[in-house]
Specification:
Cofactor: Co(2+); Mn(2+); glutathione
Number of strands: 10
Structural class: alpha/beta
Catalytic activity: scyllo-inosose = 3D-3,5/4-trihydroxycyclohexane-1,2-dione + H2O
Distance between the termini: 11 Å
Protein name: Inosose dehydratase
Family: Belongs to the IolE/MocC family.
Organism: Paenibacillus wenxiniae
CATH class: Alpha Beta
CATH topology: TIM Barrel
Number of domains: 1
Bound molecules: ligand LX7YND4F, cobalt (II) ion
Helix content: 40-55%
CATH superfamily: Divalent-metal-dependent TIM barrel enzymes
Order of helices and strands: EHEHEHHEHEHEHHEEHHEHEH
Length: 301
């Protein structure tokens, strides 16, 4: 196993953010994809503003880029599996068409991710019955994703019912390892639990997709103290790209490689693109990967 099995991507979220569609609205698909090429990444995830599969595929082929996956907000607890299924299938079909690897799922029932609430103090908690509905539904959706050649990867997320290490553990224990996989996002688990390695160590066998997101420690503690909403946190600069924040990614990266992880590692850092120039930050991330992660990994071989 070598670092050759890793595909490095960068998410559109630094250019345009599905959580706040008005920010970066002037950044077009061509602009985003061309910046990704300039910064030296192999691909990206699908953003809410992306066009039909045919148009997207042409734009990707012109630049030799690939799609890793796309976010799907599920409401299994609120709406039930039958209502979620048609939307899920439609997104799987699109992702199959653009030859993606994963569908990224996050249960949004009771989520405060998009609300004007203190994301640190007002996250939801599921009861036992709700956990059963969620886990049972995910098992079914995981099988459906496989019909389209995709892996379902669950995204633990601030402000949702699956945020903390304990909640991730419950989700992993309650779902079928054959059909439900884990997306490991360094930024979300760091902001939630104050560290990022134990979830990775505990669930490495389930990890099939990775988001490398960094955090600015001082902004994080200010946001926590002031009880800010998730949106206000990232607009204030709580997140940034690897190499610009307080997380040391070499431990996580070396562990992933040592454990034989292969697949995508997607750089994902939501900031206000009018404040943090997206290409400039993509280049910071790329330099950090090349100089701190790949070079030091080569020394260990
Ligand atoms: O993977 C992600 C997708 C976004 O929509 C989300 O809000 C962000 O924080 C994230 O990690
Ligand atoms: Co993420």
């Amino acid at each position: 196993m070598t670092a050759q099995s890793i595909h490095w991507g960068i998410a559109p979220i630094g250019w345009r953010n599905d959580d706040v569609p008005e920010i970066g609205a002037g950044n077009t698909l061509s602009h985003l994809l061309s910046d990704i090429v300039v910064a030296g990444f192999e691909g990206t995830e699908v953003g809410g503003f992306f066009p039909s599969a045919d148009i997207l595929k042409r734009e990707l082929q012109l630049r030799k880029l690939r799609i890793a996956g796309q976010w799907f907000s599920s409401y299994l607890i609120r709406d039930g599996l039958e209502q979620v299924l048609p939307h899920f299938r439609a997104q799987c079909l699109y992702l199959q068409d653009v030859e993606a690897s994963v569908i990224v799922i996050s249960e949004q029932t009771y989520s405060v991710q998009g609300l004007d609430r203190d994301v640190f103090a007002q996250k939801p908690y599921f009861n036992d019955e709700e956990w059963d509905v969620l886990c049972g539904g995910l098992n079914e959706l995981g099988k459906v994703a496989e019909e389209y050649g995709l892996k379902l990867v669950y995204h633990h997320h601030m402000g949702t019912g699956v945020q903390t290490a304990e909640e991730i553990e419950r989700l992993m224990a309650g779902t079928d390892a054959a059909h439900v996989h884990l997306l490991y996002d360094t930024g979300h688990i760091y902001v939630s639990d104050g560290e990022y390695m134990s979830v990775l160590r505990q669930h490495i066998d389930r990890v099939r997709h990775v988001h490398f997101k960094d955090a600015r420690l001082q902004v994080l503690s200010d946001c926590r103290e002031q009880g800010r909403s998730f949106r206000d946190c990232f607009l204030s600069g709580m997140f940034t790209v690897p190499g610009d924040g307080c997380i040391d990614f070499s431990e996580a990266y070396d562990f992933l490689i040592a454990q034989g992880y292969s697949g995508w590692i997607v750089i994902e850092a939501e900031q206000d693109p009018d404040v943090a120039h997206p290409l400039e930050y993509a280049l910071i991330a790329r330099r950090y990967i090349d100089e701190q992660l790949l070079r030091s990994a080569a020394h260990h071989e």
